[in-house]
Amino acid sequence: MSLWLCLRFPLLSIECLPPDINRPAAVVEAQRVIAANELALTLGIKPGQSSSTARALVADGELKLLNRDNAREQQLIEQLKCWAYGFTPTLESWHDDTILLEVGSCLKLYRDINRLTDVLTRKLTRRGFTVATGLGSNRWLAWLMSHTDSPITASGDNKEDPSLTALPLRLLLSIPGNNFQQPIERLAKAGIQTLGQLLALPPSSIAQRCGKPLHNWLQALTASSDRLTADFQPPQRFADYLWFGFEIRHSNELHPAMEQLLEGLAGFLTSAQLTTATIDWHLLRTQGGFQTLRVRSSEAHRSPERWLKLSCLQLEHYPLEEDIEGLALYASSLQEEVVHEVDLFGDNRLSEPLYSLVDRLRARLGLQAVRYLGVREAHLPEFSQLLTEEQPCPAGFATYAKQRPFWLLEEPHPIRAWNDQLFWNGPLTLIHGPERIEDNWWEQPISRDYYVASTEEGQPIWIFKNRHTQRWYVQGVLP
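The structure assignment produced for this chain is given below.
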């Protein structure tokens, strides 16, 4: 049996726009008000009024009328779907302002539907959204229940709920693409104006008097379950934003919003089994444009605590521009999760991981402050090592370590040869060799014979003989 949770956003058309808490504002479509903020509502502006009536209710120049932005609404719905993916993989957008979540398959995880609904509602309210919830065994029932004040019940069997049966039939006219206008008008003339009165009629009579479309809709409404769709396939990137409704003057005012957005990113990455090594913060202006703050980590992960700590450290030295009233979070370089082996009986709590120390140093001092020693393919040892900002692949070091010493001198040191004996801080003893390396023939030919030698103290070193000059040099120190 399927169980659908409806998240309907009745004020989506105005809540998707940058808020203006100091002026009454309303969104209009076809010269009619479809949504208004709190200041406008207190002045008597209501959905359904004409734009001219709305202007007459507010002093000249104070009312801010905005055209409906359908593209931004759908963009916000897609972002909320990615956010909701952290709770269940089976979800879909419904009509223009609704997201439906199939939660029957994940109730054991959340233990109780009321607990899940409270968590979703609290998080959405904190993000500044007005949300109406409803639960039902099918999509239509869940959507209708979101228009009632009935509490959520665990079964989702709400067909006999008094608040549902009391819903006016004219509510069906708000369904996008509906063709119920004429049947509902005929039913109203017969005195049938609520959903309960319609459901009390015999199904055969409804089909005969109201037509096939309304009859089929009632069958879908009274169905005990609904087909499941394929799991939601999230995009290979994450994007989310928040508007504050006031200007940010100090960087620490951004911390709560950062924490909230990173929590959504962590839920998305956990559900998709992805990680990221780079995130981008956009500090938004209401008039357009933004500042960009890029935060990098030396290891790909999805820990919101670590990302928040790095972001706050880097934000301390980041000058804020004027008119910043919003914050956006983007993560586009997503990677498959790499599982690391952990010692079951080891205790690593006392030592800080190297990547954590590197990240904190870079956040305070800049990306160039810490660099890694890497290796590359080159015959000559002095060309095989390099300094890099990215963490090198461990496999390259494993191959390199088998052939050459990790510690190379900045320049080869000359070795004294006398009576067939080599001296460098004492006599040397050859242990292994030779290994011939020839390279750079196109510019200045180099030909060397490499040996492993031992000092008087037993320290193995890496030496070579220049075959052109017959001179000996120390190149590196072996472990």
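Interim note for the steering committee: The longest strand covers residues 274-285. The CA atoms of residues 344 and 396 lie 28 Å apart.
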